[in-house]
Structures are given as C-alpha cells and as structure tokens.
Amino acid sequence: MSAGIELTSKNFAAEVEQSPIPVLIDFWAEWCMPCRMIAPHVDELAKAYEGKLKVGNVNVDNEAELAGRFNIISIPTLMVYNGGKMIRQQPGALPKKAIEKLFADQL
C-alpha cells in the first residue's frame, strides 16, 4: 500500500519491537477508502523522516492476529512504537500534520 515495510505476525517483533528508531504503523485494508486517503501522507512522511522513523503497514485482512492483538476495531488506525513499547494509537483518517504530531515527540 505505501512505502513502508509490510508487517506480519512473523516479522513484527524484529521490525517493530526491536527497532532502534521509532516506528509508525498503519493498520489498513485494500477496500478502506479512508486508508487510501492517508496513504500518500504516510508515504511522504516515510520519505521525509527516512533514517529517523521506520514506517510499517499492517493489512488487517491478511493479519487478523496482529489486528486482534492491538484491538484494532476501525481502520485506518495509526500506532507509534518506540523502545519496544506502544506509545500511542490513533484511529481515523488524519491530515498529514496530525499524523506527524503522533510521532514527533519520539524523534
């Protein structure tokens, strides 16, 4: 969907929980129009913060286990992870600046 890493239950620990830099995670689905609306913002932020922020994507249709683990009940949902812990979780389609504010204090 976007420029980020495709996250699965198999690679989540290595890519997110053990990441040396903060991670922005986008929980999405192909059929979700609001998910498609924020995808360009997430892509732009991934490029702008390359090396400082890792961006990952979880397709909830393919990764029901991960979605269930984090009680994802609506999409899109954005999550920020840092130091092996979830810092915040925000459902809904957000403008680019609001997405940026989700992780800015973790950089």
Structure description:
Strand 2, helix 2 and strand 3 form a beta-alpha-beta unit. The chain has a 5-stranded mixed β-sheet. The chain is an alpha/beta fold and 107 residues long. The chain contains 4 helices and 5 strands; from the N terminus they run βαβαβαββα. The protein has one domain: Glutaredoxin (3-Layer(aba) Sandwich), CATH 3.40.30. The radius of gyration is 12 Å and the shape is globular.
Tell me the major beta sheet: 5 strands, mixed
What is the arithmetic mean of pLDDT?
A: 96
> Number of folding domains?
1
Rounded to an integer in angstroms, the radius of gyration calculated over CA atoms is 12 Å
- Ranges where pLDDT stays below 50 over 5 or more residues in a row are none
Number of strands: 5
Portion in strands: 25-35%
Query: Which architecture name does CATH use?
Result: 3-Layer(aba) Sandwich
Query: What name is given to the CATH topology?
Result: Glutaredoxin
CATH superfamily annotation: Glutaredoxin
Distance between the termini: 24 Å
Please, how many helices? 4
Shape: globular
Strand order of the largest sheet: 1-3-2-4-5
CATH top-level class: Alpha Beta
Structural class: alpha/beta
Helix content: 25-40%
